[in-house]
Structure formats: C-alpha cells, structure tokens
Amino acid sequence: TSGDASAAEAAAEHVLRLPLPPAPWSRVVPQLFARARHVTPDGASMDALRRVFRIVAEHNVSAAVYGVVRATAADIPASSSPSPENGGAASATSTPDAFAQWAASDLAATPSGKASLEAARRFAESLHSIVSFVDERARVALKRVLAESERRCEEGGDDGVVVARTAGLANRLRSLVPKSPACEREKRFVAVYGDAINAAAAALEDSGLDTGSRLSPLRAVAKSLGIRSSTRHAAATDDAPSTAQQQPTILRRTPSAAKSLDDATTDQTASAPSDEDADNRAYFERNRVTLADVSPSLVDWESSVGIAAPMPASRGVCDATTTVVGMAPELTILAHAKTRPRKLQLLGSDGVTRTFLLKGSEDLRLDERVSHFFEVAQTALDGDREARRRGLAVRRYGVVPLGWKVGVLEWAGDRAEPLYQLFQAWQSRRRELARYEGASIPPVASARPNERFFQVVAPLMQRHLKSASAQPPPRHEWPAEMLDAAYRTLASEAPHSLLEHAVAEDASSAADWCLRASTLARSMGGSAALSYAIGLGDRHLSNILYDRRTSELVQIDYNVCFDKGWGLAVPETVPFRLTPVFVRALGPLGASNGTFRAALAHALRTSRARAGLLGDTLRGCFESDPLPSFGRNGDSSSAGGGYSSPDASTMLSRAAAKLAGLAPPPWDCKSHGEIPRADDDFARASWLISLATDERRLAAMFEGWSAWV
C-alpha cells in the first residue's frame, strides 16, 4: 500500500544516517537482492540497500561476490515474477535485475573487487563442470532413451514409421558423445563408448533391421554402462511368458526381487566381459575420483588460473580475506545419495583445508534460507535464560548457492556421519558374526531397509489381494492392518540400539557418557521443535547426521519443508522423527519424560516468546522472493487425502502460527485429542511426542523413511 511504501522510505532514510555493523548484514545478502526487486529504483530504499551492500563488500568480499554470482547466474529462474500464463508460477528463466547489475558494476569499479568477482565466476563455472560427469549424464540419458526406444518400437507399424519415431532419439544418443573432450575422463569415455553409442544411433535409423536388431546395439551399450532393459523384450518370447510376468505384481516392485528376476532372464549365451571392459567399468564406477581427470585447473587453482577466488563461506568459518589456493587431489562421490553429491576439500590461503559438499540438481537457495532461519532461532535460544542454561542448540551449516541447481554446503563436521552409515556398520557386524558362527545371514543384515520392507510386505499383500495377478492399490491406500503387521515384524528385527551404542562407544568415561547422553537429548529436543515449526520432512536415515565428536544431531537437506511431506504420494503424518532408535537412546525415561521432553518444551516456549522475530524472519526469507518450487510438491498429483499445496503466504502463515503455538499440524490428529493451550508448553511437548511415536502413523510412512529403525 502507499502507507507501507511511505513507511519503508522513512525507514530507509533512517538507515542512511546510521552507522551499520557489517557482520550481521553479511548473513542476509540474499535478502538484499530479494528486497531490491520490490522497491523504487531511484528511491531512498534502493539507496539504503546499496549502502548496505557496499559496507558488506568492504568487510566480507566473499559474501558480496558470491551473492552477485548467484543473482546473475543464467540458470536462476525469475522466482519473484509470477505470470498468469503459467498458472501463477515463476517464469522459467530470468535476466539479472537492476540491483544485481548495479552490484556487479559496483564491485567491478575497484581493481580488487573486479578481480574477486571474475575469479568467483570462473571458480563457480569450474565447480559446475564437476557436478556431473559425462558418464553419469550418459547413464541417465541412455536409460531414458532405451525405455522410449523400446516403447516406440513395440508400438509396431512399418519400418519407415518406426524409424521416424526413433530418429529424434538417435540424435539424442549422438549428443552424449563429446566432440571436443575437455578432460581425461571425457577422453576415456569417448574412446570406450563413443563408437558404440554412435553405432546404436545408426541402428535406430536403419530401416532394414528388424526390431530386435535395431535395439540390440542400444541394449549392449546400456548394459556396458550398468543399465538394465526396461522390458522383457529380449528375454521373453511370445509363446513363453517371462519369469517376471508369472510373479505377483508386488514382487515385481521389490528391488531385490527385480534384480534376481533380471539375472534369471539374462541371455545365457552372452559372453563374459573382458578384462578391459571390467577395468573400464571399474574406472567409471569408482566413488573416489582423481581431480586431475575431471578438472585439472581446480587442482592448483591459483597458479593455473592466475587469480584468487574468495573462499565460499557463509557462516564466518574463515577470515573474509581467505582465498582458494587449490583443491585436494581427490574428491569423493556420495553414491548412496540420489543426486550423487561430491565431497571435496578446498585449500585456503590461510593454510587451512576446509571440507565442502558440492550438490547439483537441487535448488540450494531453499537450504540457504532455512539455514538462515535456524541461525536466527539459535540467537533466540541464546537470548533465553532457561534455554541458555540448558544449552539448547541447533546445529547449522553454511550454504552458498552458485546458481539455481548447484551450490556448496559446509561439511557438518569431520566425524559427523548419517544414521544410515551406523545402520550399514551394524549390518556388516551381523554378517561377520553369522559367518563366524557358521549360521545363515539374516535378511535384515543383507538388504537395504526399503528392500527388506517389500520382502516382508510381499506375502502379506498376497493374502490381501483377491488373486495373485491383481494389481495392488496405490501405496497410500494399502490396508492399515497389513502395514501394522509389517511394521511390527520389521521393528522386531531392527537394531534399536544404534545411537545408544554409538554414544557409549564415543564416551571416554562414565561422566563423559552422562554428558553425551544429555547433549544428544537436548539436541534432539531443540531440532524437533524447530523442525515441527517449519514442517521439515523427509527425515530418513541419510538426512540426519550424528556427530561422534559432540554427540549432537545435525539435520540436513531442507528440500521438503513447510509441511510439503503431507502432500507426497505417501503422506508424512508425524511432526518429527522420533522412531525406536531415538527413544532407546534417551535411556530409561524415554521420550515422554526426562531431558528430551524438557528440552522440547523449553524450545517450544522460546519459539512462542519470539514468534514475532522468527515469523518475520521466515517472511523476509520467502515472501519477497518465493522460489520456483516453493508451495509446490514434486508429486502432488498422487498425494493422499486430496491434498493441494497452498501458496507461499498460506504456508508461511501456518508456520508462524505453529511458532506461536496457535495451529496444529495440517494432517488429522483428532485421535490424540485437541492441541493443548499455547501457553502450556510441556503439554504441547507431550502431545507432539505422542504423535511422533504413534505406531499406526509410523507404520503408514513411506518405506524409504525406515520408520521401524
């Protein structure tokens, strides 16, 4: 409104006259760019934003430079510019706005700023090049091309029609082979797979071949890259149905069963891979990659490029003048994660090596803003006497987006490891024990949690289906009785003492064990309160880290927040993760009493007391610049319960109401009674704990969540 605009201009005039400390403003550089899109270009508000940016640039060039790199990246959508043509969503691409262009020009006006900006841009481009390797991109594209080629060929028709259908796919295949390989890995890929991929493309366009011959070269190159055929076309004849088609549908959805069926239907006449093929396959599948093979310039950055890039740090982990000298000679691919992020180490000009996680395929600006909210929440906890006395803390990590789909995250700790890693270590011990005793290895010790889920559910589902060939209902409509039975079976064999034993192993004495157990409970309580407030979901075993140095929990990956988990195909209906492994780690008092409940209650009380500050922080992070994915679910069309994702304003209002203790979760929780009064923090804590530990709710969770662990 005009009144709000006038007030903003008056506040801006006040800011122009005040001395401003640079440190707090360095943490909100993204908000400066977001706010600038909504102010008059020649007004006092714009002048105030420019003054703040200049102060930040003088004292923390890293924050200013990477803010400009992010804001001017070509791949960032115009998230703050909804258009009616796309249903109110953000447009797909954007050009830098006036403030971003001014900020880049202002930095470039000084010799040091110009050099830092140029170095940061080139450094970001170099990191872009190792987010995904040529073989990884080829593997993803080949899988899609293979499935589409098989589908189009099986549609039938004369040869000319089939060739016309697959011509575009042939061109996509040829584009996978780099014409000018830029590094050793690309050269090796072209030498090993280039001719085979081009031959597969030529076969798709050859009208003189039958369907099997046309697809055979494509299947061969896909197999060499570890991709299985999406159909049984090659293994099953018309008069002999495939093994998979004879199995109940639920078994075909079991990952381990699917693998065994694929093995059973593989052409037995195929020759074994040669030693050279095995060596090539091993080279491209290694999780530890030599940096010189993928980006030689990054190994010795400063000497090879000639300019020093600022160290990308957002939480004051280094001096503002620290630059990147080079990188460790190897990087590690975290293959267990869906996006296969890279763990890398940057060598700083101050002599310190810092570990980062390079991620692609995700909009890390969401992680950046949630991390900033946690930073402000920690300030609120530090300012509350009772919370400070109990040492309530929420572990954070810095996030530096370098574009829309790429960025770096500060490593949470040199001894922080996912809970799934603890689970894998337990599985390894169980297998070794079984071998030592000469006993058979139990299934829970050899299968991934989601695979074990299907192994348990398969016989239960067959009893619930009317016939063996019947299709099961959608996942969120599976019978509650069946899921309850599966949960009880899985929980009875799961290692609930994982965290309990980890705390004991890391303790140096009985007193240290008591301190670590208390630290874990307080860490759980603080993170649970804030996770509930912002609706943080997708808390599977790989998204929660346990720091073996401090015994604290670290929540990572904020991609599913603001109750978006409720809109997934299998809705999440718990406020936070409090599964048996956590309850067991809390000791004899459990979750309903003791340190955890007290920590949760005091964190809820502090959030309620500072709801205005925290709510304004959320609105400042998201309202002025909502992200393209903000307010939309990746799979909302199949969400249970007829869920429709609300807009950003509604989601932020609900989060603010939960901070104030005035709103329940979005899902049905009538069976647990009405939400307690806002000022009864211990009652609210007990109510949330009852929701989080409800076995019926845990049984209905998505199998990848591993709620029984």
Structure write-up:
- This protein is of the alpha+beta class and 709 residues long.
- 51% of the residues lie in helices and 8% in strands.
- Strands 3, 4, 5, 6, 7, 8, 9 and 10 form an eight-stranded antiparallel β-sheet that branches. Strands 11-12-13 form a three-stranded antiparallel β-sheet. A two-stranded antiparallel sheet has the order 1-2.
- The model is unreliable at 78-95, 232-273 and 634-644 (pLDDT under 50).
Low-confidence spans: 78-95, 232-273, 634-644
Mean pLDDT over the residues: 80
Number of helices: 30
Portion of residues in helices? 40-55%
Report, as a whole number of angstroms, the end-to-end distance.
52 Å
Q: What structural class is derived from the secondary structure elements? A: alpha+beta
Number of E-type strands:
13
Radius of gyration (CA) equals 28 Å
Q: Characterize the overall form.
A: globular
- Beta content comes to 5-15%
* Quaternary assembly: single chain
For the sheet with most strands, the description reads: 8 strands, antiparallel
What keywords describe this structure?
eight-stranded antiparallel sheet, 709 residues, three-stranded antiparallel sheet, alpha+beta
